[in-house]
Amino acid sequence: MAISKYLQQYRQNEAQVLQTSFKQYRPNCFDYAVIIPAFNEPHHWFEQLSQCVQQHSIIWIIVLNRPEHTCSKALEHAKAQQNYFRTLGLNTTHNTLFDWIKLSELQSLLLINRFERPIISKQGVGLARKIGNDIALTLYHHGFIRTPWLFNTDADALLPNNYFEPFVNQHNNKPTNISAYVYHFKHTAKTKALQEATWCYDTYLRYYTAGLQYARSPYAYPTIGSLLALSAKHYAQVRGYPKRAAGEDFYILNKLRKLAPIQTLNNPTITLAGRLSKRVPFGTGPALEKIKNQNRKAFMVYAPSSFQYLKELLYNVHQQIEQQKNDFNIAKTYHNHLHALGFNTWLSKVNWPKQAAQQKHKLWHNWFDALKTLQLIRHLQHHSHPAQPIQYALEQTQHWSKY
Q1: Rounded to the nearest 10 degrees, how much is the dihedral formed by the CA atoms of 204, 209, 212, 218?
Q2: pLDDT for residue 170
Q3: Is the pTM value of this prediction over 0.85?
Q4: What is the pLDDT of residue 277?
Q5: What range does the domain containing 188 cover?
Q6: Mean pLDDT by 10 residues, the chain (403 residues)
Q7: 363 and 246 in a common domain
Q8: Which of 3, 36, 62, 85 has fewest C-beta within 10 Å?
């Protein structure tokens, strides 16, 4: 029901156009769909990404795109990429919007042309991902994909040969009440300077996730777009990827977690190339660009004490709800910081005294979500818990269960 409604009301036009062409192109049925946005990528990236999963039944959905206002070279590069992909196929059928490329008896590639009609810059990679996922959802809804999961990665990833292992035979089972899975990851880098920056960034990501886990936050998972498997049903319920130039992975996971748990996988491990990039406002590439000249001794992270503060706050709220107190009396040490995040305004709107405990927990965590949690940690850094060197932070948090 949710998927049907979403496809009728919210999917991108490319998915609608695809559906009308089913009779013409007669797509095969595949076990899995893997969605990849691609902008200004080097040649031959696809073979490296896919080399270890050639034994699986896959439809690769690649959204070849470029933002508006990019130079003519970006258009030329995209056309060259399109021509290159066409050489990979046993046979190719194409129109102005799609290329259907049969790679093998098991795999096909659906190439979407969004470079001749550029993407609005502020919608960026979020729109590219939404186009690809809406197409995958359409294929799933019409029986061309068996597994109810939308696999999302990027051109800088190397997928392991057991990439689909956690999902084998899931098309024969009832859908699980998990809204998304996040794969384990590791970064690699080619130069020594980049290796140092990559270590800092990689360690920071794991440290932040471990801090949230230590605090028992329900939003304790990495938010990297290359690592996601999204439930088709839940994807439809949150109306797809947000159309953003960056942070689309963070925001869709934030929405999904409010519907159902997100599970992190210890295995398999996706290898991500540490590379400098200015194509998006923030994310891995810009972060490495910013810290490339730092060493680990000078690299600063959120103070361990800020996660202890978060842990105590969440425990305090939990106890208040379980004790069924009518008033929401948070200690002043917490209230002052929450007030800066709009806590009082939110509380005045939710009729707190009349809610049952289960509903109060839901209301609280829907408001104090991944974004509010990050805002609190940053607020603490600026006002009472200054950033600390990463080596010091790691030494002080050895008792945390590490992500």
Answers
A1: 150
A2: 66
A3: yes
A4: 57
A5: 2-295
A6: 95 92 76 96 88 94 92 88 89 84 94 94 96 97 95 95 89 74 91 78 93 97 97 98 95 98 96 65 58 71 96 93 80 85 92 89 96 97 94 92 63
A7: no
A8: 3
Kindly state whether residues 205 and 315 are assigned to the same domain: no
From 271, 295, 319, give the residue that closes a domain.
295
Looking at the fold, whether 308 and 218 belong to one and the same domain comes out as no
CATH code, 271: 3.90.550.10
User: Cα separation of 337 and 331, whole Å?
Assistant: 11
The whole-number pLDDT of residue 280 equals: 47
262 and 309 inside one domain: no
Find, among 76, 63, 181, the residue nearest to 124 by Cα: 63
Picking from 39, 60, 231, the residue whose alpha carbon sits closest to that of residue 123 is: 39
Query: In Å, how far are 15, 186, 362 from 6, measured between CA atoms?
Result: 12, 34, 24
Beta carbons of 271 and 186 less than 8 angstroms apart: yes
Paired sense of beta strands 149-152 and 32-38, if any: parallel
Task: Give the Cα-Cα-Cα angle 308, 310, 311 (nearest 5 degrees).
Answer: 65
Residue 265: inside a domain: yes
Same structural domain, 324 and 194: no
Question: Where are the extended beta strands (E) located within 215-257?
Answer: 228-231
Q: Within a domain: residue 147?
A: yes
User: CA 224 to CA 280: how far, in whole Å?
Assistant: 14
Pair 228, 373 in one domain: no
**In this predicted model, what pLDDT tens digit does every residue of 60-107 receive, in sequence order?**
999 999 998 888 888 899 999 999 999 988 777 878 899 999 999 999
pLDDT tens, residue by residue, 298-350: 788 999 999 999 999 999 999 989 887 777 877 777 888 999 999 999 998 99
DSSP-derived 3-state class of residue 106: coil
Residue 401 falls within a domain, yes or no? no
Domain ends where: 295, 321, 337? 295
User: How would you classify residue 139: left for phi > 0, otherwise alpha for psi between -120 and 50, otherwise beta?
Assistant: alpha
Q: Could you give the residue ranges of the DSSP H alpha helices within 258-303?
A: 284-291
Residue 187 lies in a domain: yes
